[in-house]
Write a structure and sequence with these properties.
Distance between the termini: 44 Å
Bound molecules: aspartic acid
Structural class: alpha/beta
Shape: globular
Strand order of the largest sheet: 3-4-2-1-7-9-10-8
Strand content: 15-25%
Number of helices: 16
Helix content: 25-40%
Number of strands: 16
Largest sheet: 8 strands, mixed
Radius of gyration: 25 Å
């Protein structure tokens, strides 16, 4: 299909749409590239740090309804936010009727999805009017099945049809339609996923995710001041970093685009010329300079417990680890890592997950595994050092451990993923920040 070639899907987050000034930046960005034919919007976010996100206010409205409290003052604030944008940009959108329709449906048993989805719906109406693009309601193209999963066949077809009828579209993020036609919202931050689904549906050349940061940062800026942004990262690396605490995107975002090999580019609405972060399955033709950077990013999480089970001749006793894992499974505890020795193994688990059931779990291990000793160490942080170029490169882990040792940080646990894109070390919680800082300084 010739007309579907080279389409860019651009999704803008709430902070990029918080007011008329941000709307103008978005328009400049969209108009600067004629291939940006599909624009996906979030609801207006915060304009300043103490401000409220529209979605939060809509949830608040719903809570009022639930408890039979009049929500007019909150709804009035929401209405004013949209009116301010429409007025400043002289947009011809009938907000009067839209809010009259919302007020007409407000009642105690109103579905939260119907109300909360209005944040994205109304913002898309305004953006469509501002850009001169066609508004397509998410309930008319993004379909969920009975199992709550996206019905990709139906969804892809509906969006491609809309795009063949209208050249340029604005789509509200965050919701779609259930098989019975009811609106269904996604989890918080879900507009990221909407953008990815749209990009996959039309086979976009790129999915641009516009936000208010320069891209994915090498480390958490609360730990290292002004860290570098990552220019290129693979989907696999991103998954490792996100799992260990780095967050920029909704974690479900990558799957639709990754399956279709569509690059995902995180961009900064406030600095559109900057490259942002490009996320792909793999990168070819990287420069010498890029190839000399071994670490892509570092992330970590605090508050883990290590349950160390020792038993003489354990390695000749088949099944002991399986039995222990059956026990953790019974308690709904996820085991993150299982470092093993000849006569011992450890279960690394989140302290919050075992807090309530620890003693019952330990006594089950005693009874079933009949160990010599079981020891629990709390207060462990896991730090993931992630980098696709570490694979088969001698000396990286030596440097990593050397750096921690030279800074008197004791390592409690070490693990390396089979594909060698990450090394995970366990350190004491009190060393969490320092470990990340020294590793960043050594590798960035
Ligand atoms: N507005 C929704 C939220 O605040 C969805 C989104 O922005 O992606 O979570």
């Amino acid at each position: 299909m010739k007309d579907m070639a080279n389409i860019k899907v651009a999704k803008f987050g709430g902070s990029s749409l918080a007011d008329a000034v941000q709307f103008k930046k978005v328009k400049d960005i969209v108009m600067a590239d004629k291939n940006r034919r599909i624009v996906v919007v979030s609801a207006p976010g915060k304009r300043f740090s103490d401000d409220n996100k529209i979605t939060d206010l809509l949830y608040l409205c719903h809570a009022h309804l639930l408890y039979g409290v009049n929500c007019e003052s909150v709804l009035g604030m929401i209405e004013q936010r949209y009116r301010d944008i429409a007025q400043a940009l002289s947009l011809d959108v009938d907000l009067e009727s839209e809010f009259a329709a919302i007020r007409a449906t407000l009642k105690k048993n109103m579905r939260v999805d119907d109300l909360v989805s209005r944040g994205e719906y109304l913002n898309a109406k305004l953006m469509a009017a501002y850009l001169g693009y066609t508004f397509v309601d998410a309930k008319d193209w993004l379909f969920f099945g009975y199992d709550g999963k996206v019905d990709y066949e139906k969804t892809d077809e509906a969006l491609c049809n809309a795009l063949s009828l209208h050249r340029r579209l604005v789509l509200p993020g965050f919701y779609g339609a259930s098989p019975n036609g009811n609106i269904r919202i996604m989890s918080r931050g879900g507009s990221d996923i909407t953008g990815a689904i749209a990009a996959a549906a039309v086979g976009a050349s790129v999915y641009e995710n516009w936000t208010d940061v320069p891209g994915i940062l090498m480390v958490d800026p609360r730990i290292v001041e002004n860290p570098k942004a990552i220019e290129r990262i693979t989907f696999a690396e991103l998954r490792e970093l996100s799992y260990m605490g780095a967050s920029v995107l909704h974690e479900e975002t990558v799957f639709p685009v990754r399956n279709k090999d569509i690059p995902l580019n995180i961009k900064d609405t406030n600095d559109p010329a900057a490259p942002g972060t490009m996320i792909r399955e793999s990168f070819e033709g990287e420069s010498e300079e890029e190839r000399s950077r071994f670490i892509t990013g570092i992330s970590g999480k605090k508050h883990y417990s290590i349950i160390c089970v020792s038993k003489t001749h354990m390695c000749e006793n088949g099944g002991i680890i399986r039995k222990a894992l059956e026990i953790t499974e019974n308690y709904g505890v996820t085991v993150e890592h299982i470092p093993t020795g000849i006569d011992s193994f450890s279960l690394v688990v989140s302290t919050a997950q075992v807090e309530q059931c620890l003693y019952a779990l330990l006594s089950d291990i005693q009874r079933v595994c009949e160990p010599d000793t079981v020891k629990v160490t709390d207060g462990v942080s896991l730090i993931a050092v992630v980098g696709r170029r570490m694979a088969y490169k001698p000396g990286i882990s030596g440097r990593l451990f050397g750096t921690l040792g030279a800074n008197e940080i004791n390592i409690r646990m070490i693990e390396q993923g089979a594909d060698e894109i990450n090394i995970i070390v366990g350190v004491e919680d009190k060393n969490f920040k320092k470990a990340i800082q020294v590793l960043y300084n050594s590798f960035a």
